[in-house]
Each structure stands twice: as structure tokens, then as C-alpha cells.
């Protein structure tokens, strides 16, 4: 079973970037701990995405069919 992704470091970075942009800042500084958390989060997200894309490509090669499902999620 796939563990849920912890995307909090990405969300925090995006919020800091949004605030910096709105306040007219020219640079955005991250403490090394925040940068490391963001790096680790992005590595996990990209690795999982690559694995899922590989699985889709393999499925298409084997069956020739593409199946897309939309899930509205939960609130």
C-alpha cells in the first residue's frame, strides 16, 4: 500500500513565495532545514510520479488501452 505523501514542505514554500511576490521582495531565503525538507519532499514526489508514469507506459504497451479515472476526493 502506498503511503500518503507529506507535501507540507512544498505548501510552506509556495506560501512563502506567494508572500514574497506580493510584498515585492526580490529574493526568497530559506533556512537550511526548510530547504532540506523541501528537497526530500520533492525527491519523494518526483520518484513516485516517475514510478506511476512508468506503470502507465508499461500498461499501455501491454494492452494498448488507456484508462483514466477521476476521483473527486473527500472533504
Mind summarizing the main beta sheet? none
Overall pLDDT score: 88
Rg (CA only)? 17 Å
Shape: elongated
Structural class: mainly alpha
Low-confidence stretches: none
- Fraction in helix: 55-70%
State which percent range the strand residues make up: under 5%
The count of strands amounts to 0
Alpha carbon gap, first and last residue: 22 Å
| Sequence of secondary-structure elements | HH
Q: What's the helix count?
A: 2
Characterize the structure shown.
It contains two helices and no strands. The protein has 75 residues and is mostly helical. It has a domain at 31-62. The longest helix is centred in the middle third of the chain and has 32 residues, at 32-63. The chain starts with 7 loop residues before the first helix and ends in a 12-residue tail after the last helix. The mean pLDDT is 88.
Amino acid at each position: 500500500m502506498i503511503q500518503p505523501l507529506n507535501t507540507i514542505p512544498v505548501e510552506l514554500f509556495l506560501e512563502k513565495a506567494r508572500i514574497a511576490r506580493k510584498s515585492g521582495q526580490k529574493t526568497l531565503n530559506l533556512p537550511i532545514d526548510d530547504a532540506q525538507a523541501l528537497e526530500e519532499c520533492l525527491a519523494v514526489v518526483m520518484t513516485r510520479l516517475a514510478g506511476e508514469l512508468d506503470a502507465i507506459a508499461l500498461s499501455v504497451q501491454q494492452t494498448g488501452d488507456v484508462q483514466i479515472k477521476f476521483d473527486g476526493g473527500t472533504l
